[in-house]
Amino acid sequence: FPNVVDDEFGGVSVEDLGHHAGYYKIANSHAARMFYFFFESRNSKKDPVVIWLTGGPGCSSELAMFYENGPFTIADNMSLVWNPYGWDKASNLLYVDQPIGTGFSFSSDIRDIRHNEQGVSNDLYDFLQAFFSEHPEFVNNEFYITGESYAGHYIPAFAARVHQGNKAKEGIHINLKGFAIGNGLTDPAIQYGAYTDYALDMGLIKQSDYNRINKVLPVCEMAIKLCGTDGTVSCMASYFVCNSIFSSIMSRAGDINYYDIRKKCEGSLCYDFSNLEKFLNLKSVRDSLGVGDISFVSCSPTVYQAMLMDWMRNLEAGIPALLEDGIKLLVYAGEYDLICNWLGNSRWVHAMEWSGQKDFVASSEVPFEVDGSEAGVLRSHGPLAFLKVNNAGHMVPMDQPKASLEMLKRWTHGKLSEGTAYPEKLVSEM
Amino acid sequence: PDDHHHLPLPRSTFPSVQAGKLIRELNLFPAKDVNVLRDGDAGLLDGRNRIVEKRFR
What pLDDT was estimated at residue A274? Predict the structure, then answer.
């Protein structure tokens, strides 16, 4: 990148860092090329490889890269400023533009636009195979899948696809150790049922609104049940019915920001991420990235609509098999997000049937402390953990950058319920 | 059935409306709806049948 302000990055010059970007051809597609950024860890090449998936569906992962947990943020003068809490401080960090058609990822064949998680996860699996064949030095590192929002759908499907590929000895073995979902949409039947409860608890609607809106709930639940994990028309019907619950809450709640109910949306604007488009359309940046004349599609309405039948499918169904095989799952949620609220996430995690369910439900909540103060509340048992993050909305790494980096470090080190992940380093600093 | 004016579904639940709203709320205005190249863009595909990766600074 040009224009990196590196004076805040003590001791290490930008030239020492391994930053890569490019396209991999997706093997089992007609003509798809997936674009990615790869940032080698600022700490150690031996750190885990972490892939981040942004939701939407149809929004570029560069949104998170520049506004949440990437190495830099974009200043108004289009220079880049180091993020002291970028997740590349604890991992070798990958951002991919997916599904195809999003960000800089493209195809010359409309058939490569995906409509379901099978298509999305196969493309991501093909991407990983291409990535690790180009970067064999990282193939033995631990591998973690992370992401947010609609990625609550992508992530379980992708984790299952990787695990299935490993079991079938397909391609390069990927050292998958875990997956994390932040404020995600994973089990719509439970999560849509939690909307009114959360809205009432948080004072967004009155009891009379609650009673009225809840009359739609049985229809929504029935429609989602019919949709199941592989329905088609029923899934589309449930999208319309169930989203009327959310719309009804919003029409009563006024101009609140449904990603963070502490905030209001001014006009139609809830966030200003416009510097992303400005920056990625600069000629100097495009030349650095080698994207030629390919458009940058920050969020794709076409990709969003293409996933219409996928919305209400239950992606929780594939998770128990992964847990039984020892693959870790962390579900975390900022407490002030309405759209993928912590209550709905907590409910589906608790309701999930697996061999450790009873022990997970019976386990005690413990404070998640960062720098001696409570950054959240954690419940965990075996490979499963749920973390409610304090003072955060939908985008936890943006609202609580330090806590979210600490969460990543502790989780990948298997020390989520303990103190800091690097106690020895703190002692040496003392 | 012919009284479509009384359908209980508000237009705001349509996915096209939702997608537009999502994008506007983030103050984003992508120039294209999706990155699918047309025939006229064939030149953009030149040299992209291989793996492309740049180490950038």
Answer: 96
Q: Which residue has the higher pLDDT, B3 or A300?
A: A300
Question: In this predicted model, what pLDDT tens digit does every residue of A2-22 receive, in sequence order?
Answer: 556 555 444 444 444 578 888
**pLDDT over threshold 60, residue B55:** yes
Cβ–Cβ below 8 Å for B22 and A304: yes
Q: Is the separation of the CB atoms in A103 and A296 below 8 Å?
A: yes
Tell me which of A299, A303, A308, A398 to substitute to probe the interface with B (most B C-beta atoms closer than 10 Å). Answer: A299
Nearest to A320 by CA among A360, A346, A361, A354: A354
Q: How many angstroms separate the CA atoms of B52 and B17, rounded?
A: 36
Q: Å from A115 to nearest chain B CA?
A: 14
Label the pairing between strands A49-53 and A72-74.
unpaired
Q: Percent helix, strand and coil across chain A, each rounded to 5? A: 40, 20, 35
Closest residue to B27, CB basis, from A25, A274, A302: A274
pLDDT tens digit sequence for A213-224: 999 999 999 999
- Which residues in A59-88 are b (16+ Cβ under 10 Å) and which e? bbbbbbbbbbbbbbbbeeeeebbbbebbbb
Give strand ranges (E) for A64-204. Answer: 72-74, 80-82, 92-96, 106-107, 143-149, 176-184
Write the pLDDT tens digit of every residue in A79-95: 999 999 999 999 999 99
Backbone angles phi, psi at A96, to 5 degrees: -120, 145
CB contact under 8 A, A102 and B45: no
Q: Between chains, do A273 and B45 touch, taking CB under 8 Å as contact?
A: no
- A363 CA to centre of own chain: 26
Q: What torsion do the CA atoms of A284, A285, A290, A293 make, to the nearest 10 degrees? A: -80
* A332: its two tokens: 């975390």
B27 vs A: CB within 8 A: yes
Task: Catalogue the E-assigned strands of chain B.
Answer: 52-55
Whether pLDDT at A130 is above 50: yes
Task: Quote ipTM for the complex.
Answer: 0.87
User: Dihedrals φ, ψ of B55, to 5°?
Assistant: -90, 120
CA distance A94 to A145: 10
Closest residue in B to A276 (Cα) is B28
Q: How far is CA A170 from CA A62, A129, A254, in A?
A: 30, 10, 51
Confidence of residue B1 (pLDDT cuts 50, 70, 90): very low
Q: Give mean pLDDT, residues A122-151.
A: 97
The secondary structure of residue A111, as a DSSP letter, is G
Contacts of A330 (CB under 8 A, 6+ apart): A178, A179, A180, A181, A385, A386, A387, A407, A411, A416
